[in-house]
């Protein structure tokens, strides 16, 4: 008898979502998680201080 283990532990967790951020103003790049994304959207780019939009974020695979 064989047992097969399928690892599905990655990719389903919602609080591990990470985003690649690239500022459309200063072109700085960094990777952030969801809470930091919220901060950036609310307070602006951490590098240049200008407004950030959701289009500046790409969800990591
Ligand atoms: Zn910037």
Summarize model confidence as the mean pLDDT: 87
Strand content: 15-25%
In which range does the helix fraction lie? 10-25%
Overall geometry comes to elongated
Number of strands: 3
Taking pLDDT < 50 over at least 5 consecutive residues as the criterion, the unreliable ranges are: none
| Class of secondary structure makeup | alpha+beta
Strand order of the largest sheet: 2-1-3
What value does the Rg take, in angstroms? 16 Å
Through-space gap between termini: 35 Å
Order of helices and strands: EEHE
Ligand roster: zinc ion
Kindly report the oligomeric state of this protein. single chain
Number of helices: 1
User: How many structural domains does the protein architecture include?
Assistant: 1
Please characterize this protein's 3D structure:
The chain contains one helix and three strands, in the order E-E-H-E. It has a three-stranded antiparallel sheet. 16% of the residues lie in helices and 21% in strands. A hairpin with a 6-residue loop joins strand 1 and strand 2 (29-33). The chain has one helix spanning 34-43, and strands at 18-22, 29-33, 57-59. The protein has 61 residues and is an alpha+beta fold. The chain has one domain (17-59). Bound molecules: zinc ion. Zinc ion binds at residues 23, 25-26, 28, 45, 47-48, 50.
Tell me the layout of helices and strands:
Elements: E1 18-22, E2 29-33, H1 34-43, E3 57-59
The site of zinc ion has 8 residues, from loops.
Pfam families: DUF7560
Protein name: Small CPxCG-related zinc finger protein
Organism: Natronococcus occultus SP4
């Amino acid at each position: 008898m064989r047992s097969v283990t399928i690892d599905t532990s990655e990719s389903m967790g919602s609080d591990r979502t990470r985003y690649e951020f690239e500022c459309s103003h200063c072109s700085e790049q960094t990777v952030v998680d969801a809470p930091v994304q919220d901060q950036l959207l609310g307070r602006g780019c951490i590098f240049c201080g200008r407004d950030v939009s959701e289009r500046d974020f790409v969800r990591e695979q």
